[in-house]
Task: structure prediction
Amino acid sequence: QVQWVESGGGLVQAGGSLRLSCAASGSIPSFNAMGWYRQGPGKQRELVAFIPLGSSPNYADFAKGRFTISRDNAKNTVYLQMNSLKPEDTAVYYCAGLYSGRTYWGQGTQVTVSS
Result:
């Protein structure tokens, strides 16, 4: 089992930045992939970015050029640096880890971007 500690959300003005972090603890030493998802009001949960172990990151179109995902394997932590935030980025952001075909979800953190 996995327990996540997720932090970094909050309220920010349009054009501002936030850095999300999510640290995992439990029996899984290293995830095959780690990533971030989000779910805005009245919307489906969608992928923001993910990064496989020992490989390059991948981004949703809306995140390209603005968001950066990274991972620290020694700390079993995944980060999401978000710049040039827009009101449409307002959502609950969830970290996740993939291991042996199963996805382990964080509890989510609220990101609110004001006009």
